[in-house]
Amino acid sequence: MLSPRDLIDRYDGIARGRMLQDFGVTRLALAQAVHAGEIDRLRPGVFATASASGFVRTAAAHGGALTCAGALRQHGVWVLHDDERPHVWMGVGGRVHHEHCTCLTHYRPGKMQLGVAPVELALLHAFDCYGAEFFFCAFESAWNKRLIGADARAEIRAALPASARWLVDFAHRYSESGLESLVRLRLHVLGISVRAQVEIPGVGRVDFVIEDRVILEADGAEHHSNPASRHRDLTRDAVASALGYERLRFDYAMIVHSWETVVASVLAALARARG
Q1: How far is CA 228 from the centre of its chain?
Q2: How many CB atoms lie within 10 A of CB 235?
Q3: Closest by Cα among 187, 232, 231 to 205
Q4: How far apart are CA 1 and CA 20, in angstroms?
């Protein structure tokens, strides 16, 4: 039989005692595991192992499951920003156990289980909390990572307000980073159509091409400006220029915090290309 720690690890590191008892784990075994430091008692009847992150533990102590950005991070989904405090999904009528804390409590439909909210529910909760841009970037990331299938995407679309369902229709699974998703969405809202992940002979694959003349690259925090990558970028820029393209490159800070500068640069490049 699995030990209490091994069994709890199979449930995101969080489990109720009564569920463990269904697998033959006695109260005495749980008490002994707590005494030995193998598991922690978060509150009466709820136990955790070291595999559960801090926010997951906090949510369980509060009485619910971690949701919104914290849950999406746990699932490996790209998020535009992190939650400053735990967002806790309580289901519809859950009871708060963890009072006088910084948790943000959500009472939303669904059968809540302690741990981490499912991806599709965390996406919907995040839309309510943070709006269209956050949702769209996370949705495309989850799709790219194959965390949401066709049925889940359809259910998410149906659960969104009618005015927001176009976000799901506009999404695709090819964005390799949330930053690319954000750029595509923002340009679309401005009426600028782009082709994403385009292969150009001699240049390679680029993030976006606008009107077959402007290349736009979105460099995330993981982009490294070491000498080798710098040389490679300069070489690609030179080849693109020889083919008649103008290449624009923006980093995370510019796209997220200085979008007006990005837009001005794109519009100027398009004006030159059209002229």
Answers
A1: 30
A2: 13
A3: 232
A4: 12
User: 62 - beta bridge partners?
Assistant: none
pLDDT digit string (tens) for 80-128?
999 989 999 999 878 888 878 889 999 989 889 899 999 999 999 999 9
CB half-sphere exposure, 251, CA atoms < 13 A = 6
Which amino acid is it at 273? A
Phi, psi of 242 (to 5 degrees): -65, -25
Contact 262, 192 (CB under 8 A): no
How many CA atoms lie within 13 Å of 138's alpha carbon, on the beta-carbon side? 30
Superfamily of domain 178-274: VSR Endonuclease (3.40.960.10)
CA end-to-end span of the chain, whole Å? 74
CA distance 100 to 102: 7
Location of each CATH 3.40.960.10 domain in the chain: 178-274
Dihedral sign from CA coordinates of 129, 253, 148, 74: negative
Instruction: Report how far apart, in Å, the C-alpha atoms of 112 and of each of 74, 143, 232, 254 are.
Output: 17, 23, 49, 39
Count CB neighbours of 96 within 10 A: 13
Global pTM value: 0.87
